[in-house]
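Repro case for the chain-ordering regression, as requested:
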Amino acid sequence: MGGRAVSPGGALLRTSRMFSIPKPLPEPPSTNLHIGDHKSATMTRPYPQHQSITSPLASREKGDWGLKRPFPLKSTMATSTPFIRVKQLDTVENVTNFASAADHSLSLEKFQELRVAMSVPHNTDKKADSSSRTELWHKSVFEEDMDVTDFKAGLGDDRRWKFQGPWLARMTEGKFIEYLDKKVRPKRAQFRALLKEKLADDITTSQNRAAIEAGKETPAKVEAKDISEEQFTDYLRSLRNDRVTLYALVSKFLDLAPLGQPVGIIQTFWSNRDSLASESPYGKSGPPPSHPSAGISYLRTSSFMENHPVYGPQGKRTPALARVVYPKAGPVPPKLGVGGFVADAPPGDNEFNFRTVTRGRVSSNKTMLNGIMHLDTTTFGGAKAYVEATTANVDPSGKVVLQLRETSAEAQVVARESKGLTEIYHDGKTKSYTPATPKTTSQQSARVSDETRWNRVADEILDEPSRS
Amino acid sequence: MPSLLPSSCAMRGLSIRAFSTTAAARAPPRGGGDSHHRHSSSSSLLSINNPASSRTSRSGPQSAHKPSEAAADLMTRYKKAGQTSLRNKQAHLDIMRNQKNSNDYLKQMPRRWDAGDVYSPHDMSPVEMQKWRKRSPRGGDVVDALGIRPLDMYKNFSLIQEFTSTSGQITHSSGTSLRPVNQRKIAKMIRRVQGMGLYPTIHAHPEMIRDSFFPERR
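-- result from build under test --
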């Protein structure tokens, strides 16, 4: 510990939330190893690292942002998005280093307009038992049994999102070796003591069971100190061959973040053990670095029906206009940008996918969106399409990954009409939709004549009271 | 905080449209006065997104099936087959041209987007895209990250090439971004392997520059 540079009162003020800007978050790690070295220093990061600060207009005109020194009016007044992020309050040049924070502030606003509820990652490869019913829909991150961090909580222990230990899957080799040296090796004696106690418990239970089956008195409880070294060494050897049990013990002892389960035969062994990974929703995807909602949305559910003032309750939610950010590149699905967040195009048989062989016949999707296979160079502003954002979750590197779904044609029309792009609603009479049937011309003319007669009758009836 | 985005003005245009009493608004927007010529509301609603495609698809000339016109029928079918093949060929050419056009433009967009990336208008600019073209200098200490022992890596020529120039000189620590301990170890290893004669001192390893002398035949 170094000496304190400021007085205790000053230190208190400096560390208080009231007077200090929170420390910046670390730089997001690059997930893809291949593109890790292709990056830009000025790109918009997947999550904001600095607090976004704004100030009311009256104060802004005076350059007052509530910080140490007034800000230059030339840059802070000339913008329509008065958000700044302070990178450094005091530099050696005695100026405040700041930049615009409009990117993340507006992204947040757009995301909240999407009204997306955050959910825990969806485990697709779950075994089909009692838990499969809850896997049919997305579970909110704010569910009471999931939203826990308490290490000692008995039942909710394996469903929490925060762990004491690291996530081994994302560690580099060097970090892993360091972790082994610094954290794991000093705990060796402690773990041996724990194993000894577990062995003593095992022996006691097996003795008791044998005694009950033989109808004898239960023998005395075996203590950890009664176990001989040879007995313990044999137990260690058996444990080394029993990877599943050993992994469960180690991960519980070090409180490691759950790793994905191996698929196959092992799973049958796994199912009847008490293991951490089998239950945790973050076993497959990895634990989130923050709260699984990332504070970007506090909605619990998206299971509600939107009501239209004229058309009534809507089957689909209001779709959002998505930009095709990058077309399909080989096996990589096309990328759509919704409200400033890049997401994979919705899967399935829709306008974003090139339909391939279905039951022996190749049928290319006729109504495919223009910018999916190739970059759309003809549309002004690039290709856009309406999609519906169903849910989002936070991945281990802190990115907010949106899940998209195609929307219906009716929802698109209603959305376009609400923006004034089309006009559907009118005060005139409308016919109910009848499926088109092949009809001859004579029938049609008869129908038309019927209709004109009917209209005349209707006119006569309706006009009568107005005249008199 | 003032709302900067136009907040969802979903109902604004509609409410004016629906409940106004002006003559222009009350008049049915399409179809005029003839109510019986108008399509039903839901069918027009479904086809409004692609007004061009829905009408034209069904118009096919109905061929006559009289035995006397069999030859003429055959002729028209033959012509039609020729037309379809021509159309297919043109469609294929269109696809090829689109693909080339698209690839040319995509070369100017070297960023590979991942799900979960956040972008602002600035990220789409050419200035920003150019930054994704070249490899940025390495940030961290590779030896520490990989947990390797540099002195054991003397047979790993690709690794040695990473830390030497094309003329076989050891790269300065400002270029390798190794911490001093690891830079000394790497430099020692390279000096050793060059002293042993396993790695050339004046050019890159022959295996690494083989392609420039013997380009692969396609």
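Ordering looks correct now. The longest strand of chain A covers residues 384-394.
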